Structures are given as structure tokens and as C-alpha cells.
Amino acid sequence: MRTRHVLVSGGSRGIGRAVARHMIRTGETVTVTGRDAATLQEVVQAGDAHHYVVCDVTDDHAVVTACKKAVSQAGPVDVLVNNAGGSSSGRFGTMAVRDFVDAFQLNVLGAVRLCQSVLPGMVERGKGRIVNVASTAALRGYEYVAPYVTAKHALLGLTRSLALEYARSGITVNAVCPGFTDSDLVSASIARAAGKSGRPAEDIRAEFARFNPRGCLNTTEEVAIAVAFLCSIGASAVNGVALPVAGGEVG
Fold this sequence. Notes:
alpha/beta; Rossmann fold; 2 domains; seven-stranded parallel β-sheet; about 50% helix
């Protein structure tokens, strides 16, 4: 009996890498995707994944090719974790429509492409797990990141729609909604904010931490544990939920 094959997009760092590492600990076979082959190779060499495929989730052909390669390496995809994402920041009045298009391409349509690639096989086998890594930005608003907030709300809408559509096929589709997490993405956001405002990065980091009632940033491992639960056999009745991992910032 083969182990489940878990495909993690954006798996070269941060939350994605933590998810891959945690899934390996639970005995799964893990493939990570990302844009940089050298970084992905390092993830595999470090033992945080078994396989990797280079994939730009904003490219239709690249996603189809990557999924075929992943299946050839480790078998059908049983669990999909849509983690690839990113954000830009600025005042709404300074942003172009292109900023919103780019946010949707990466944060929403990347997940759509991967879901379209793996769902037919899941339906055929009568089982599967999909977890979309959203954000507390899918549940509330934040200043100066309108494209990101808009895209993450859309990702949650996709999650809820697919959960209903595929519930009778033995497939669950859920979202985790991390608050500010000690990851490369948040570090980049802090650096951008510091550069634009001239304020010390330490002050901005502390400001981000204050969103969490615990007074700290989440760890990537805390998010990974939540993802693993939603992927587990025991979570078969959990479907269409948005699970906050934010210390009580949102209900």
C-alpha cells in the first residue's frame, strides 16, 4: 500500500516548506513546487521533501507539465496544498489595475490551475484533500494591501465553492488563514514597510505582532500543523472551513 502523495506549491520556503517537512514526519510522500530549481533541490537535499518540480503557477502550461512530472515521480496526487502566493503594498490610489490582476494570477488562479490538474484523478479514486493557504486577509481587511486582501477573499470563495461541488466525491476542500507569521513573506513585507516609511524594521515587526492577541508572530510550524490536520483522514467531515491560525485575532 503506497503512502499518500502530497503536492505543496510554493514549497521552497516559509509556510510551504514547513508544511512539506511536517508531512514527511507524518509518513507522507511529498513533492514541492517553486520557481527556482536550486532552492528546491536544497529542500530535497535537506530532507524536507522527497521530490521537486519547477513550476510557475501563473503559467497554464507550466502547471500541467509540473503535475504530470510529479505524478510520474511519486504517483497520483492525493493531497494538494495550494501555498504559492505573495503580496505587494501601497496606497490604493497609487495602485494600477495590473496590481490586482497580478495578485489574482498568483494567489487565486494559481490555485485554480492546480486544482483543475489534480481533481479529475481525485474524483476517479473517490478521495482527496485540498488545502488552500489563505490568510486572515481572507477574513478581514488590512490597510495598504488591497490587491492581496481582495485576492485572498476570492481564494476563500473558491474554497467554499469547490467544497460543496466535490463533497460527494470523497474530497474535502478547506482553507487555513494564518495571521502574521514569522516567514520570508512577512519579513519581505516588513522590509518594504521600513524602506518606505524610514522606520526601524524592529518597530514594524512589533506592530505586526500586536495584531496577534498573544503578542507574537505565528510560527510556520503552527500553520503546518493546522494544514496537516485538515489533510488527515480524521478530518473527513471537515469541509469548506476557513481555519484561522492567528492566536485569536479573528474568530
